[in-house]
Amino acid sequence: MKLKDKVCIVTGAASGIGNAIAHKYASEGGKVAIADLNIEAAQKAAEDIKAQFGTEAMAVAMDVTSEEQVNAGVQAVVDAWGTVDVLVSNAGIQIVNPIEEFQFSDWKKMLAIHLDGAFLTSKACIPHMYAQGSGAILFMGSVHSKEASKLKSAYVTAKHGLLGLSRTIAKEAGPKGVRTNVICPGFVRTPLVDKQIPEQSKELGIPEEEVISKVMLGQTVDAEFTTVEDIAEVALFFAAFQTNALTGQSLVASHGWFME
Ligand code: NAD
Q1: Which residues contact 183 (CB under 8 A, 6 or more apart)?
Q2: What InterPro entries does the database record attribute to this sequence (predicted)?
Q3: Catalytic hit among 81, 139, 155, 238
Q4: Which end of the chain, N or C, is less surrounded by CB atoms within 10 Å?
Q5: Is 220 left (phi over 0), alpha (psi -120 to 50) or beta?
Q6: Closest Cα to atom 24 of ligand 1
Q7: What is the reported pLDDT for 191?
Q8: Quick one: pLDDT at residue 117?
Q9: Pocket of ligand 1 (CB under 6 A)
Q10: According to the model, what pLDDT value does residue 202 have?
Q11: Ligand 1 centroid to 116 CA: how many Å?
Q12: DSSP-derived 3-state class of residue 239
């Protein structure tokens, strides 16, 4: 059990990648808080985890762009379980549009969910991690933390920004035993990606099959999607890693779409 009794908060864990990470952490003995905007789906995920693994799990209503809700959600976890050992700032959305048509309100929404969310959740968890002299923070970046694609100005900007925030926290928090790293997945078939396929097809003027085969998987080594399980494995590796040898890093898991 790599995370036995570790208190783990995963944002956006009611669906997709975050949900798989929450299940993986519970399978390794972690107590998992599913923090999500969608409280009904979060409650269902927590019930599912308790039934499947017999571990403790709780749902936390949280809009990661609200300082008040983030602070209240983290406090609820600390009240229940005493501390926070692992934070996965994963909640995210996608909005695609060419730059000249990108609504300013959508730009601000994207930066708020991805960047404010990472900042606010880190800020709320770090004092508890410092108090115990240990902790692991993970940000859900993307290949788009290192590479650009058409139509994704706000997403690419936000995902690049997470690298800077992670590296800064790594320097500030390292001496106090807190590590921070970024996971950079390629395309993973979740609701976030399913929504984009028809949208990109329309914007780029190509069939949906071509969005998948060329835009999403064209540069992979084997034309395969990365899976939520693949990313959950990486998230376990980072969360369970014991020393500051691995901090301020980012790991791409993308079937070779992006190599460095
Ligand atoms: P998803 O749509 O399946 O899940 C996202 C979850 O985030 C949902 O449960 C949603 O309710 C929650 N959420 C959205 N806005 C929120 C907010 N303001 N506060 C709290 N919760 C909120 O998406 P996913 O594909 O699992 O994406 C998870 C993360 O992985 C995102 O940060 C995304 O950018 C990143 N990512 C996804 C892919 C991919 O191909 N799917 C690739 C790289 C990175």
Answers
A1: 138, 139, 140, 141, 231, 234, 235, 238, 250, 251, 253
A2: 3-OHbutyrate_DH, NAD(P)-bd_dom_sf, Sc_DH/Rdtase_CS, SDR, SDR_fam
A3: 155
A4: C
A5: beta
A6: 16
A7: 95
A8: 98
A9: 11-12, 14-18, 36-38, 62-65, 90-93, 113, 140, 142, 185, 187-188, 190-193
A10: 94
A11: 14
A12: helix
Domain definitions of the chain by residue range: 7-186+227-253
Q: Please list, in sequence order, all residues whose beta carbon lies within 8 angstroms of the beta carbon of residue 157, skipping any fewer than 6 positions away.
A: 111
From 72, 94, 87, select the one nearest 32 (Cα to Cα): 87
CA–CA separation, 13 and 22 (whole Å): 7
58-111: per-residue pLDDT in tens? Answer: 999 999 999 999 999 999 999 999 999 999 999 999 999 999 999 999 999 999
**Per-residue pLDDT tens digits for 131-188:** 999 999 999 999 999 999 999 999 999 999 999 999 999 999 999 999 999 999 999 9
Q: What pLDDT does residue 6 have?
A: 98
The radius of gyration of the chain from alpha carbons, rounded to an integer in Å, stands at 18
CA 12 to ligand 1 centroid distance, Å: 6
7-186+227-253 carries CATH number 3.90.1150.10: no
Asked if 130 is an active-site residue, the reply is no
Answer for the pair 69, 88: CB distance below 8 angstroms, yes or no.
Answer: no
**Pocket mutation for ligand 1, best pick of 192, 217, 225 (most atoms within 8 Å of C-beta):** 192
Q: Which two tokens stand for residue 110?
A: 């994207």
pTM across the whole model? 0.98
